[in-house]
């Protein structure tokens, strides 16, 4: 085991040496997939053990991102579709999300909730809101915690917010139609004011985004890794950055 760890450390250093500061993505989105399957593969009947293990990995990810110069990280913890899971699975998962959110605040990260908080139980929504308020003035890495998140719901919420804003100014639908463009909608997204994600990572071997950041990912690069999220290592993260740096981004062409 000691020799194996040494080999990995040497490999990590080589990967780091290959990375240029100019090639580091500003914003990385991560779909932390595979917690339940990890627990089952480990012979555990309680899948919440996998969720807890995956939650512990988030802090490691944030340190990796800060060390390499990433400015924004969006971590998808729970989709709005996941809210339909059986209560015996959903309730422990929500408690874990509440716990890890508070842990991230205690560690000094700046937390921004991303999702439809009105769909969440009051206790979870309040933890997320309090985390944002408590950490709002912190410098450095921005951590978007995506809970109750869905890409289609985000776009619908953005359009709804845009309509409400214009209605409050006494403008008609016809007035809005005359001036509406993509930037108007972008200003009402959950991630408004942030750069769009340059790199989206999904673990567990699934090669789809499942609606993650539908609007913002128009020009993102995707990286799919076969490891379940609890097994995702720093060397895997560095490989994702190396892969991103090697690509020629065409921005839609």
Structure characterization notes:
Mg(2+) binds at residues 33, 221. The chain is an alpha/beta fold. It has a domain at 24-149 and 197-244: Undecaprenyl pyrophosphate synthetase (3-Layer(aba) Sandwich). Helices cover 49% and strands 13% of the residues. The protein has 9 helices and 6 strands; from the N terminus they run αβααβαβαβαααββα. A 6-stranded parallel sheet has the order 3-4-2-1-5-6, with helices on both faces. Strand 3 (110-114), helix 5 and strand 4 form a beta-alpha-beta unit. Helix 2 crosses helix 3, helix 3 (48-68) runs parallel beside helix 4 (87-107) and helix 4 packs parallel to helix 5. The longest helix has 21 residues, at 48-68. The radius of gyration is 19 Å and the shape is globular.
Main features:
253 residues; alpha/beta; Undecaprenyl pyrophosphate synthetase; six-stranded parallel sheet; 49% helix; globular; metal-binding
